[in-house]
Design a protein that fits this description.
This protein is of the alpha+beta class and about 150 residues long. The protein has four helices and seven strands; from the N terminus they run βααβββαβαββ. The chain is about 20% helix and about 30% strand. The radius of gyration is 14 Å and the shape is globular.
Length: about 150
């Protein structure tokens, strides 16, 4: 993974992003319940979908949103989804993507980014902690609310 870079999600990369195969059990953690309930409130102009490329191969997908006017703090600079191909996990792809999202948030004037995840075996908790997120609360649905200070 020496040639990692981010690219905007386009018609030429969307199929590969949608076809990323996760490790067994990870599919259950793709979208927390909390996000399902607030998705309609998102400002589409603040959406930040990107693919992680390694050379010519799509190895990851990250989607976040930036909305200064969001009614909840955790929606202002929120990481909504991060998927890394099973064969690329453990090689820095996810860390690279989160750092890129954090850099974009910092560039836009945010002092922290947030993410919501459900606990469970094969879930993303250890990853989020490893890249610097701290659990700062819980959603009404019992999910973890994490924040990464920039």
């Amino acid at each position: 993974m020496s040639d990692l870079r981010l690219e905007e999600l386009t018609a030429s990369t969307i199929s590969a992003a949608n076809s990323l195969t996760l490790k067994p059990g990870q599919e259950a953690f793709i979208q927390p319940e909390t996000y399902s309930h607030v998705e309609s409130e998102l400002d589409p102009s603040g959406s930040w979908p990107r693919v992680v490329m390694d050379g010519d191969e799509v190895v990851g997908y990250i989607m976040g949103a930036f909305d200064d006017d969001a009614h909840e703090d955790f929606l202002r600079a929120a990481l909504w989804r991060i998927n890394v191909a099973a064969e690329a996990q453990g090689r820095g792809v996810g860390r690279f993507a989160v750092q890129a999202f954090a850099d974009e948030a910092r560039r836009r004037g945010f002092d922290h980014v947030t993410v919501v995840w459900a606990s469970g075996e094969a879930g993303p908790e250890e990853f989020f902690k490893a890249v610097g997120f701290d659990i700062v609360g819980e959603t009404p649905y019992g999910e973890n609310l994490g924040a990464l200070t920039l």
